[in-house]
Structures are given as C-alpha cells and as structure tokens.
C-alpha cells in the first residue's frame, strides 16, 4: 500500500515536471495581426516570426524577457515618421532580419528605429535600417551584440539627423560587421566601457565615422572609415586600442583620419592613413603608442600639438605626404624612433638598414604654414626649398628635439 | 533741396557705417565649422554658440558648455570679449546674449558635450521645458560655475561679468 502511494506521488510529480517543461518550451509563432499584439501575448522564450509585408507600426514596446522578433525576407516595419519604432525594455531580446524605416526627426527627442533601454543581452542582427533619425540606440545597456546590420541614414537633413549606432552609458557591447552611411556619426559612444568595435565600414557620414566620448577600456579594429565629413574623433577617453583600421579620403580643413583630443594610455597600431587632409591630429593626448602605421599621400600625416606629451612614434612608414609632422611649438616631449620616411635623404654606409644621419621630420615650411595658412601658396617654390634646407642644416624655428635618430632605410611595412 | 538729399544720404551712410562697426554674431556653418574648445565639428544648431571679440573676430563652439570652458581656460582677456551668443533653444535662428539668457540643465535634453545645457531667450520657455523634462533653470553665472565644477575641478576663478 505504502509502495503504491509512493509510486503515485512519483508519477504525479513526473507529470508535473513534464507539463511545466512543455509550457516552458520555446514556441515559434507567426505574427498575423499587429506586431505589438503578438509581443503582448508572447511568453519568455517565444520567437515571433514576421512574414513579408509592410507593417505600419511605431512605438512597439517589448517588456518580456527572452523574446525574439525574426523578420522573414521582405518584412518591413514602417514607423511613419512618428517616433521610436521598437523599444526594448527587457533582457535577452533578439531582433533579426527586419527592415526598419522612417522614424521621422525631432529636435528634442532622439527618435530611434531600435531603442534598448536599461537591458542586457540584447542582440540586433542582420537588419536593414533606412531613413531613421537614430538607427540603433542602446542606453544603459550591458552585454549586447550589434552585428551585420546595413544602416543608411536620413536624406539630406544635415542638422537634425542622429547617429547610426549610438551607445550611451553601456558596458561590454560588441559592434561587428555593420555597414553605416549617411548618418551624423556612424558609430557614437558616450560613457562606454569594454566596448569592442570590429570589422565595420562607415562611409559618407555627415560628421564622424566613429566618435568616442568619455569612454574607457575599448577597442576598435579592422574597421574602414572613408569619406566621412570629419573623419574619426576619439575624445576624452582612456585605454583605447585602435588597430588595423583604414582611414581614407577624409578631406577638408576640419577633417581628420583620427582626431585625438585628451586621450591617455592608448595604442594606435597597424592602421593605414591614406589620402586624408590630416592623418592624426593630436591635442592634449598623452602616453599614446603610435606604431606600425602607414601614412601615405596625406596633406599632413601627423599634427602633434605641444600639449601632447610622452607619445611614442615607432616603426611607422611616412610615404609621400606633403608634411610628415607638424607642430605649434619648439618645445615638445614626444619620441620618434625607427620610422621610415620617404623624404629622408641620408645614407647608410654601415648597411644596417638604419640611416647614419638623424632625420628631422618637421619642415620649416610647415611651421610657416601653421602661423600663416595663406603661405601654402608657396608650396613647391624654390624659395621654400632653400628655406627648408637652411633650417635642416641649422634649426632655428623647428623643434630641435623632434628628431628620429634612427630613421629606417626601408619601409618596415608591406 | 539738393543739400537736404545730400544730408540724408550722408546720414544713411553714417548709420550703415556705424552698424557695420558694431561686432555682431555670425552664422555658424553647421556640419563644417569646428568648436574652438573641443575641436568637434558643430552639427547641432540648437546648441552652437559663439564669442565675438571687440574687433569682430568670432570663436564658434558646439555647445554652451564649451563656450564657458573656453572663457575659463583660454586666457582670453575679458576686455577683448565684446559679447557671447547662444541660440534660443525654441528658435535656434535667434541669437541671445549669453549673459541675459536663461539656461535649463536637464539630463533629458542631451547637449553635444554632455553637460546638457539648453539656452532660452525667455525664462518662461525654460520653465516650460523644465516642467516637461525636469532639471534646473540657471543664469549665466550658474552655467560658468557648473562647467568649472564639472570639467575643471572647480580650480578656476569665475570672471566677474555683468
């Protein structure tokens, strides 16, 4: 008898466990009516499949954990220019395969196609964004992924348009393989920590391809930044690792490959700076290692302001730039060693690959141009060549200590 | 008759001449001009500000906080400054004298450099936005104190300006 009771209890508990696990099983639900209704009816773990078609919805709010929105080919949500399209307020939400368009513009609110607020483990993957003020906006969010999205900003509304991927007060976010164009900033970080930005392409954005503000412990590598109105800006941040990126064709008086402003303890390694007005502009930045980069065909490869100190330039190649290094003072506390300079006209009698005569990369002419920009007119004149030569023999105006004692005879890079 | 016409013409020219002499704010080229303090390209019209010198030279800033910080750090002599101008947040085409403007300091209205100051010609407008978005209404001196505290560790002396 007792045995039977025991078995009964076992059976009942087994059935209970089974039913609970059935209830909790992840369901796949095809959305038939409005997306908001489907989201409201969903349970944690559900995947909502959105069939092809145009859905005129905005302000879709997700407040349940572990929900996936997956668009089938041709699934479009059109916000109708009336504000945020999807707002995520819960954890582990995935948004995949959708086209999101037309948030409209606001001068007070940051309208976003996907807005994640105070959540974690969000994943925004393989979507298409068109004509939005902000496309992806993560605010106070942790441990999330933004990958494989194709993002194109609004038409030509210069002053109002927002950023492609905007991270505000975030930790441990991965931004990978995205393509971003025609936003204000392609990727924007403010108060970010532990963010990794790799293999993205940002082209033709109205301000910066990438814009770092007040951030820490972050890396961006193997990205391509091309033809952005002002290049890339890394400002007021520490411990930034910038490696293997391409900075190209950023042209204009206020346009830079990288604008470094108040950056400490960082690394710029293995990048290519090609055909920019200014490759690196450094102001108030300290203890940055700049190594193994290629600077080719820039107006100014490096503008290093005197308030930047303890920066080390080594094993870089400076090839065919109008000016290799320019500065605003005779005082300076940075190191240049073992770089390759295509302008170097010394010799290597010992044959050890290192030039026997030190190289002074700051031309007198660049100092003159810094003080009086209109004198750029004299570029390529005999008068300037004579001045430069005289200054090299007997430095009077150029910084005496800014010298590469061991210039390489051959480029250390491929 | 002829002398009167001449007189009027002369007066008109004199007025034009005087008007041209008075240093005045210039238009900022949004998306092109650079902030003189933080070097960022100015891209948000409702925040773009400027200092005009007594000789008519202008320094542009991407935000009210950068204007204040520039004045606090750059050693710009007070007697070189003719005037400071901020855009009315509700109507960014209108320049307001920075010292007479009202400022809202609100987390909800994020400014380009993160100190979240917006400027208003009328105190009523600032208060309307404070009621909708929260925050605190400040005068120019309060803005200078805030920037000094937040960015410069309170180390600077705030110039006495009227």
Describe the structure.
- The complex is a heterodimer of chains A (414) and B (162).
- Chain A has 414 residues and is mainly beta.
- Chain A has one domain: 3 Solenoid (Pectate Lyase C-like), CATH 2.160.20.10.
- Helices cover 12% and strands 43% of the residues of chain A.
- Chain A is built from 4 helices and 36 strands.
- Chain A has a 13-stranded parallel sheet with strand order 3-6-9-12-15-17-20-23-25-27-30-33-36, with no helix packed on it. In chain A, strands 16-18-21-24-22-19 form a 6-stranded parallel β-barrel.
- In chain A, helix 2 links the parallel strand 1 and strand 2.
- The radius of gyration of chain A is 28 Å and the shape is elongated.
- The termini of chain A are far apart.
- Chain B is of the alpha+beta class and 162 residues long.
- Chain B has one domain.
- Chain B contains 4 helices and 7 strands; from the N terminus they run αββαββββαβα.
- In chain B, the strands form 2 sheets. Chain B has a 4-stranded antiparallel sheet. Chain B has a 3-stranded antiparallel sheet with strand order 6-5-7.
- In chain B, strand 1 and strand 2 form a beta hairpin.
- In chain B, helix 2 crosses helix 4.
- The interface between A and B is medium-sized, with 23 and 17 residues.
Report, as a whole number of angstroms, the end-to-end distance of chain B.
47 Å
CATH H-level superfamily of chain A: Single-stranded right-handed beta-helix, Pectin lyase-like
Q: Which segments of chain A are poorly predicted (pLDDT under 50) over 5 or more consecutive residues?
A: none
What's the architecture of chain A, going by CATH? 3 Solenoid
- How many helices of chain A? The count is 4
Number of self-contained structural domains of chain B? 1
Strand content of chain B is 15-25%
Tell the overall outline of chain B.
globular
Query: What about the largest sheet of chain B?
Result: 4 strands, antiparallel
- Number of H/I helices of chain B: 4
Model regions low in confidence, pLDDT < 50 over at least 5 residues of chain B: none
Number of strands of chain B: 7
Topology, number of strands of chain A:
36
Strand content of chain A: 35-45%
N- to C-terminal distance of chain A: 85 Å
Strand order, biggest sheet of chain B?
2-1-3-4
What would you call the structural class of chain B? Answer: alpha+beta
Mean pLDDT of chain B: 89
